[in-house]
Structure formats: structure tokens, C-alpha cells
Amino acid sequence: MSDSYYNNNVEKSINDYKIFCFNGEIDSIMVCTGREKGHPDFYFYDANWNRLYYQHEALEKANNIEKPQNLDEMLKIAKNLCKGYSHIRVDLFDVDNNIYFGELTFFDNSGFDTDISYETDLKWGEKILLPNK
After folding, report:
1. pLDDT in tens, 29-76
2. What pairs with residue 16 in β-bridges?
3. Is 119 strand, coil or helix?
4. How many other CB atoms are found less than 10 A from the CB of residue 35?
5. pTM of the model
6. Helices (H) and strands (E) in the chain, counts
7. Residue 1 lies in a domain
8. Count of structural domains within the chain
């Protein structure tokens, strides 16, 4: 493991918030935490910060993540950025109550995320509305 500033065992890394959007609507927020361990944990929440269980049961942990104070602002940003896309993931960071843009992701794990349950794959697949051409 690297001992660089961003990937170390001493300091806790920041959480990032990956907001999954379908057809201009927010489905869920995946919180990625614990990168300093070398293998982060992922927790899913809805827009009202209710816990969702989208991963395989063996990967789900009981820990709950504290709702960020600026969640409403993050959701507003994601809602604006996701307009016009069948599916997009908006990645944001919250550092000292400041929101930082990470990236827009068009193909999550190239569509092969083995941590997501079959039921979640089906749910998300049904939400994607492709345009007729």
C-alpha cells in the first residue's frame, strides 16, 4: 500500500458520494468510505437518507453513515447534472461542508459490478429508458 497523502493508514480518508440517476431522477446515493484501509466499504441510501441494501447480503455492513449537512445541495447539483441522460452517476465529495465535484460516470464498472445484487441490476435496468431512433 502506498504511503502517499491520499492513501495511508494513519489519516482517515474523506467520504465520496456517488449519486445514481436515471432519466433525470435520483435513485440512490452510494457512500464510499474507508479508502485508507485499501478496500473501501460502500453503503447505499435514498434521497431521504434511508438505508438501501443494493449489494449482495454478505457485503452489507450494519454501520450507518451520518447524513452530510449539505446533502440537499449535493442532490440539487446532481439533479441539474443528470438532466438528459438515461443513466449517469454524479460523484461528489464533502470536505468541511464544502462540495467538490469528482466526475460524471456513464458506465459503472462497465456494467459488470459484481457487488450489486441481481435484484438491484434488474431494478436499475428497468429504470433505463433508451430513446427510440
Report:
1. 999 988 888 888 899 999 999 999 888 777 777 777 889 999 999 999
2. 32, 93
3. helix
4. 17
5. 0.84
6. 2, 6
7. no
8. 1
